[in-house]
């Protein structure tokens, strides 16, 4: 605990205006790095991995929700794009990255 209190203050002497010890600075730096990892970097990496897996798992016939909130069924996959049927006579071409959720089969008919 001596890295929190300088030796001069612990002995009751005059207040010493000095920098904290090197071990105290290292402990604080490591603490901030651990907090940064668990609160920011790890959850973001997990979300990116889930989004990548969703996009890679898309196939013809999947019912999806895409970024604008529209629902549709995938008719065809073309590289980074998907042709989505919104209703019986309307199809649109969207980027696969715009897909935010894959719905269970039969969801569109129940709406």
From TrEMBL:
<comment type="similarity">
    <text>Belongs to the YajC family.</text>
</comment>
<keyword id="KW-1003">Cell membrane</keyword>
<keyword id="KW-0811">Translocation</keyword>
<protein>
    <recommendedName>
        <fullName>Sec translocon accessory complex subunit YajC</fullName>
    </recommendedName>
</protein>
<keyword id="KW-1133">Transmembrane helix</keyword>
<keyword id="KW-0812">Transmembrane</keyword>
<keyword id="KW-0653">Protein transport</keyword>
<keyword id="KW-0813">Transport</keyword>
<dbReference type="InterPro" id="IPR003849">
    <property type="entry name" value="Preprotein_translocase_YajC"/>
</dbReference>
<dbReference type="Pfam" id="PF02699">
    <property type="entry name" value="YajC"/>
</dbReference>
<feature type="transmembrane region" description="Helical">
    <location>
        <begin position="22"/>
        <end position="40"/>
    </location>
</feature>
<keyword id="KW-0472">Membrane</keyword>
């Amino acid at each position: 605990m001596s890295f929190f209190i300088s030796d001069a203050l612990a002995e009751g002497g005059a207040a010493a205006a000095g920098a904290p010890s090197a071990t105290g600075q290292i402990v604080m730096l490591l603490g901030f790095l651990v907090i940064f990892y668990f609160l920011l970097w790890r959850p973001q990496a997990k979300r990116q991995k889930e989004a990548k897996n969703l996009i890679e798992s898309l196939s013809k016939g999947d019912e999806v929700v895409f970024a604008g909130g529209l629902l549709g069924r995938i008719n065809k996959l073309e590289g980074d794009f998907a042709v989505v049927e919104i209703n019986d006579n309307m199809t649109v071409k969207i980027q696969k990255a715009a897909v935010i959720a894959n719905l269970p089969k039969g969801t569109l008919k129940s709406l």
